Amino acid sequence: MPGVETMETLSGAVEDERDNALPVPDEALLRMRQAIVDGQHWFEAVLDAVGRWRPARETVGRREYSYVIGGDAFDWLLLAERIIEEVPDLVPPGEAAALLYDGRWPIDVDDEEFAARLGREKYSAHLNYMYGVLVEEALQLYVEEEIHKEGRSRAWGQDPREDLSMYSRVYGTSRAQLLERYYETTGILLRERVPYADWKAFTYWLFKQRLKIQDKARVASDTRKGLAQLSRMELAVSSRRRGGRLAEEDFAARFSA
Fold this sequence. Notes:
This protein is mainly alpha-helical.
């Protein structure tokens, strides 16, 4: 299929369409539409379509979709957006907007059912995305706010001799140096204006770098900060769901921190 890259990078979960008997996108969309018409809730049908989906990257019209980041982090909500756009007549627009923009699920689906509908490999990659992108972004915000508080508390303002950037605090070097290393590692050059998909990939790369350079105690401390920041943000929307339990002990078990 033109403009499509398959999810071969999800821990080898998808290697050959014939061996795995996975449907092409058109068939997944057809099954979803029929399931909704037959009475299944649209959100459950979308999750089932996500579980059956094969492409890891697509170009649809003038828009590019990259569902897999760094080979093993899966942005299921972006894929859900792509799928929902195919059935605007069957999905209430208010519920779709609440899901895609606020992260609010229209019905309750527990973690076990959510994992089963996505499938083991995709769910595992989804957790990588949650820790490696969402929690990492929250950690960055936490440190940025920490730096601003320190600056306000200084009687004479910021000390110019100190490097107070978030990147130096968390990753041990400047943003410019990190971007240079990212280019050397991936061949991807990020300029001043960066598409969000590329920025998420850079964030996930930073997450992996942090795991390499920090000792276990520091990893645990910074991860705790990110989780706390994300929890505070989540309180703004009481009915919000992310699709998986996030906790420090789960992080440690998953990433051997």
